[in-house]
Amino acid sequence: MLTDLVVALDIGGTKIAGALVDGKGRLLVRVQRPTPAQEDAETVMRAVEAVLHELALSPLWGRSTAVGIGSAGPVDASAGTVSPVNVPSWRDFPLVARVCQVTGALPIQLVGDGVAMTAAEHWQGAARGHANALCMVVSTGVGGGLVLGGRLHPGPTGNAGHIGHISVDLDGDLCPCGARGCVEGIASGPNIARRALEAGWRPGSDGDSSAAAVAAAARAGDTVATASFVRAAQALAAGIAATATLVEIDIAVVGGGVAGAGDVLFTPLRFALRKYATLRFVQQLTVTPALTGANAGLVGAAAAAGLGRRGAAAIVGA
């Protein structure tokens, strides 16, 4: 029997991906374009439109009943606008209205990319079966989302759970968001690499100075590289523990490129969490890697759209 599909968009500073996703989370058609992030607003939007137009060529398009958008943020779901930090020309850009011009009468659900990843992990990944969870993307930035009481909790603007901008160092560096000592300023990939370089770590002969290269050096026993990951782990642990204390989550799922460091990140993270999550009701909190991988944004955008139309049991938690 034919089933309804959701048109999913995953919009970030590097790529714009789209897919037709079915009720089991399968990507039946997938399209991707590079994000012209440094170009003007209309050029970026044309890339989004190109993805949608290519999806619309599929004979499956007619089965689409909703559109889900997961976008780099901040987003404002109540206004239908986005202001991605890594797409400078999009400030309060009316993304929902512009997508509606292509997709017609289909209902549209907009969430931040961290919330989309959370929807994917709760539906298909490591948070499945958990009623209260924090899911995080640790990459060039740090984002996240919440599941509370078994339901995705995007908040009024679609940004709830944005753990990257919890302050964990009151006298820390100034963050581009305007606050000081944010988790993102310590634990994101670029900041892990920056701190290692400032402390004297040097790339190998290939010149790779990314967080992945720092992780490889740490794995090989480099103490400076290791220290940078330990500091990142402490920041993440403090943010996770604060979130758990506030809303009583029982699992924190960590995905994104930095999570690819594996034990280099997760061993000190779990150790640090024991120092921060000290109250009895958060002591059983667990931290685990994400499972949904590179398509988490698309799967989660589809899940969020399903939530918006039919309630949590219809897609997430099914």
User: Strand fraction band?
Assistant: 15-25%
Q: Spell the H/E element sequence.
A: EEEHEEEHEHEEEHHHHEHEH
Decide which structural class fits the backbone: alpha/beta
> For the report, how would you describe the main beta sheet?
5 strands, mixed
Helix content: 25-40%
Q: Rough shape?
A: globular
* CATH class wording of the largest domain: Alpha Beta
Please, could you describe this protein's structure?
The longest helix is centred in the last third of the chain and has 25 residues, at 223-247. Mean pLDDT is 92; it is low at 307-318. The strands form three sheets. Strands 3-2-1-4-7 form a five-stranded mixed sheet, sandwiched between helices. It has two domains: 5-112 and 294-314, Nucleotidyltransferase, domain 5 (2-Layer Sandwich), CATH 3.30.420; 126-290, 2-Layer Sandwich (Nucleotidyltransferase, domain 5). It has 318 residues and is an alpha/beta fold. The protein is globular, with a radius of gyration of 19 Å. 36% of the residues lie in helices and 20% in strands.
Write the layout of secondary structure elements.
Blueprint: E1 5-11, E2 15-21, E3 27-34, H1 41-56, E4 64-71, E5 75-76, E6 81-82, H2 95-103, E7 108-112, H3 113-124, E8 133-138, E9 142-148, E10 151-152, H4 183-187, H5 189-198, H6 211-219, H7 223-247, E11 251-255, H8 263-276, E12 286-289, H9 296-310
Parallel strand pairs: 1-4, 4-7, 8-11, 11-12
Antiparallel strand pairs: 1-2, 2-3, 5-6, 8-9, 9-10
Quickly describe the structure.
It holds the Pfam family ROK. The protein has 318 residues and is of the alpha/beta class.
